[in-house]
Amino acid sequence: MKTSDSALVFDIKRFAVHDGDGIRTTVFFKGCPLRCIWCQNPEGISPKRQVMYMKSKCIHCRTCETKAFGHQLTWVRDHPELNFTYYGTYDNLVKACPAGAIVYDSAAVTRQELLDKILEDQVFYRDTGGVTFSGGEPLMQGEFLLELLKLCKENGIHTAIETCLQADTDFVKEVVPYVDQIYADMKFFNPEEHQKYTGVDNRIIRYNIKLLLESDARDKVTIRTPLIPNVTAEETNIRAIASYISSLYPEVCYELLNYNDLAGAKYPMIGKTFGMPENTRRFKAHEMKKFYKAALDGGVKNLITETKAKERK
Amino acid sequence: MNERIQHLKEKMLREERFASIEQAKIITRIYQENEDRSIAKKRALAFKAACEEIEIAIDPEELIVGNRTKGVRAGVVFPESGCSWVNREFEDLPNRPQDRFSVREEDIQYFREMIYPYWNNCSMEEGIRREYGEEIRHISRVVKINQTDHAQGHICPDVGEWLRKGPSIIRQEMKARLYLIQGEEREFCECVLLVMDGAITYMNRYAKLADRMSVDYPEYHDNLVQIAQNCRNLTSRPAQHFGEALQSLWFLFVLLHLESNASSFSPGRMDQYLYPYYERDIKNEGLNDEQALELLECLWLKFNQIVYLRNRGSARYFAGFPIGFNIALGGVDADGNDTYNQLSMLCLQAQKEIGLPQPNLSVRLNQNSSHELMQKAIEVVARGSGMPQFFNDEAVIEPMQKELGVTLKDARNYAIVGCVELTTSGNALGWSDAAMFNLCKTLELALNHGVDEITGEQLCEDFGGLDTYETYEQLEDSLRKIIDYYIDEMMKAEEVVEKAHQKFLPSAFLSCVVNDCLERCVDVTRGGAHYNFSGIQMIQIANLADSLEAIRKLVYEEHEIAREELLAALRNDFKGYEMIQAKLLNKAPKYGNDIREVDEIGAKWAEYFRERMRGYRNYRRGPVHTGMYTVSAHVPMGENVGASADGRNSGTPLADGGMSPSYGRDMHGPTAVLKSVSRLPESLTTNGGLLNMKFLPEFFETEEGRNKFETFLRAFVDLKIPHIQFNVVRKEDLLAAKEHPDQYRSLTVRVAGYTAYFVELDGKLQDEIIRRTAYEDI
To answer: Least CB-CB distance to A59: which of B582, B669, B674?
Structure first.
């Protein structure tokens, strides 16, 4: 469980080359205040450790069945179906499964352990790369994150965060000085839609965006909108967001992220169902153009497109 | 690539590949006519005769001429080193799984009646077989002794010196010495004169042919006249112009192959020694970069016209007839400053445009490598031909001094031969491909009472088995004893092979371009070179480390698997023991994931092996050192190793490369792989190391991606890893190429230390390349 000394991390991805400048290590924290129906990292939503079953690794040896307590699982045809609402731990199954098909989605890591992990790739960071904190929602880690960011800066590591900005404004203010790059999502302009698809309205988010874009830190910020077909990917939405953020800061960097059609793969592993229709696809290059146009029409000058990641100032 | 180059390339690839016995006939005749003379003299006479008689041809569009057969890419039968395998396999050449050649019926008959009967008893191969064949066979499941039936090659001659002198001056200098020396030295000197005469004649014949053709092909008249003039000039004086220098360089390599039929003679640091010619012509002769590039591209095509005929077994270890014209661009100069020039850039451009397997192009990197050169090299890597490969000055120069006693100046001037083998330039017989030592097999024997898990044969003394070792340390003790035993046997065999090369393959022509042979009047095979090394390859650290760590942790530390249970699982290739296999695969850490404990096990055993080598000297009184590369040998060597404790099935390939992790076991991306590899000390790979990586082409599409790749390479330099190479190709491409080979004839992939045509590789090797880890999510 999370205490101020450790945090639950569900992935540490090295050689992350799409999460900021240079070669980076991205740390994914558990726990998110939003419930976006298209979420790519569903295991990141809950702040609790969960068990996962990876069908592709299973060798169907039934070891888990023989080692299971009461309600942990049921064996169905050739595979176990885990009871994800089981109240106890799954230590027995995780240990017993020879194939590593039953695993926990995350592990509790101390600040020092995380820092050591981040430092492993320091030789690759050089002038440009560093660490990116993502999730889930990194700002939900509170004090832990703040102290970790300070440690990173003490070690000369470039820091970035990917955040939805649904967070306490005072805390955002506290964190910003230790972050070199901020990727903040603005998914909808309209609060009702935001409420409908993410579970919260966007008042706090808009307030925080305004705060950031009007602060000295505004050049660190990139606003991002994930293009979710038939959800966020509407030209009116993009134009409204673009016009809002550029009215706050005309030089704002704005990035449109294409839909990731592999996003649904992880849902079955944690016993959940993906909220997006199955055959939803990425946008083709020519389809992306109309969204770019909407963003430019909205007044954005620094648009980051798929093919050409813009040089930052 | 202009129209001329396009034409020449197409013509070359279209031409059928034949096995050729033309030179074998000449050599046999000369040997028969000179029975009473020494082998050295016979070899020199046979070389001279070949220069005079071999049928030659010029394509009127060529700007650089010369080949050792009339047709291109012929498989030359070379009887002196060995032809019993040709006798056994001649009919198979068109149908064998790897490296096929067409054959002419009449050649087979002539070979069987006239050539083979003569050599059956007096080739080097026969000599070695008679003296030590049984012993070599006895250790062959652990040690593969190389160079038993062909000349060694793997030499970087002093091309700069050859360009400055040419055959006429070398001839003059030796003639002046002839009367001052006696005995063996004098004979050596006489042989040099013979081979230089041959070289001059050979160049002259091209001059004459070009003259004649200039009349027959009026549309190419100027071209052919220029060729005739270049060739004629080179018979009497050193090269002066850039075009002459390239022609002279190519003649040198053709003649080296004519003498030795060896795999790999390397042009080395071409951008350095050719630069003065290029610069002079740019300044004074109105040469422009477009013309210089065209000339280089003509040479690039030439590098693809000489291939190497290997026997069926060897073709599997070294698939795709790699001939190893290795060119090393960039790197530090004699003072340690980074150096590259416009010619380096043009060489990269030539590779980018031509994209064929040869030359084997390498770029030397160091901490001060320029952004310009690196970006150009990355552009070429992005084309997907697997080249250039990268070498790291920071990981090569210092160990070369420390481990091999090479001077700082020579170490800074290192070049690459064969695939990834390191050498000094122009003054070493590195014998870098001496033997391959299968460490995975020794572990199998240590676990299994010295019994071969596959055949059940008792291969070496029984030092115990997993069932008798109460502790992990006992296992390590036995493993040490078995490694020691095979090292000892291997080094005895090495001595026999080296002696045989001295006896059967003295090489006067080669000796002319390897310092200090001429000064000392000692043939290169007899230790005439300034440096004399032997290199042994350690196969395969990834599997060995993963296996030992799995045993240590799961058997001895955690008691997760019982000793008898593991032994039974291995003996049954995990059939009925799938849970054991799953545990081995999933419950123990693997090399390639930046996990210190397992990486250090690999380093520890490699260092043990390296340390043992310090106790030996080769027959030329030089040091024996180690390398970590397999070429394609991880496939056949894997066939020879039973199920292993890393979860690998019996007979399946070992990890590829040499320093690379096992397929699919590196789960934390390329930076973790580099970190793991960097734990292998550079002293282990003074003979060369090999690290394969596969990247998807998308990575190179944006400037941002290419810059990140440069960052990755700079970290590779800082981590002091000696070598890295990249396959940039989609899995779908490879699958499609396997399905429709006709549509993918020019698709090249990195096999190991070299590039080959994918469609010409054995199906098994194709599958294995497809399986190699791709970092698909980047």
So the answer is: B582
